[in-house]
# Entry
Amino acid sequence: MKKILVLLLIFNISFASIDQLLEKASISAKEKQLRKYFNIAFESYNEGLFDITEKNCLKFLKTASPNDKNFSKVLELLAHTYYRTKNKWAMENYVAKYLYKYKRFIDEDSAKKIFVLINNLFLDYPNKKQYFLKRFKYIWKFKKKPFLLPEELKNFTPYVNVFPFENSRLFGINKIYFSDKNQTLYEVGYKVDMGFDELREANPLLNPFDIRKGTAIFLPRRRIIPAIKYQDREIYINLTEKRLYYIYKDKKNKNRYVITFPIGIGTDDTKSPVGAFKITEKRKNPAWYVPKNIKEENPELPDVVPPGENNPLGTRAMRLSHSSYLIHGTSKNFGVGLKVSHGCIRLFNRDVERLFEIVDINTKVKIFDKKIKATYIGKNKYVEFHAKKKELNELKLNIYASKVNKNYLEYLKKERRGFAFPLY
# Structure
């Protein structure tokens, strides 16, 4: 009798082990199939083979669990595919339905990118557009997390040019802006306090000179401070992204904030400097003493341009040490966010006036030229790509190859530039 019981116990354990092995083999086969769909989908998209992209995206989404780490990525890829092929039926019946059905699984930035594509694809269909606006209000309606500003920062706009400092290089939150009229991306930039190039970089599928009323625009406000070792009350400038950062510490309450503005920089022939500087001089309503090299380019210029609306220095100017370069305002708003100056750093007048009031003489200024910024938040690697895809291709991105699919990485360099996101 005892022998029979022992044999039965052995058989039960054996069958249980076989079941577990079969289950593991099934899971392994499914994961292998998902990796195959994922790889082919992104590879074919990069090559412009959108039929193959669609086929493999749909296979992935029907097979994968919605909490799969790649689910949001593939749904975003499918949205890009339907936008590029102008497939409204599929965008509505696949992407929009997946987006709503699995909304608690789709990461916030992917949801925003997907919604922008849906909205803009249906721009000529007001009833459909209105339906999607209502259905996806939870995505585009900005939920502010209120925070107090000290008196000296009351002229700043929360979540636009001042953000709570989160004790890391990563800060901010991306937003969606709806164009209130037919306009250009230059005009949008001035309204939302962003530069032309950074808006174009984050919205590569938009015509920057034909932004129609109702167009949804992705505002890249989730950023990484360019300095690896940062300190309070120092100015950091990254030329590639054309943006200035300033970490401000409230003397009274000891709260810290990240202040950030778009900038215009030097052209390829008259580059802005890279290095460490200090603010050595501050001037309100400065006169412009025309430099000799600029006078040679345009002999009709006077020796001195007095303060006023035609003064290219704008309403404020701050000199960088050991140089003739300035951080200053402008008489031409379109130049903010572009390579247009003779090397100086150019801001909107309203921005340079605010910065002028909180920056002291001898404030340190560090100027970088980084096409990629990266930082860790816990175990997650966040990256921020800038510059054109061709320039990014010249950089050594193989450091990510061991953890990131190479075809997905190629996709990111084209469709996810201009803001910080978790790479892995």
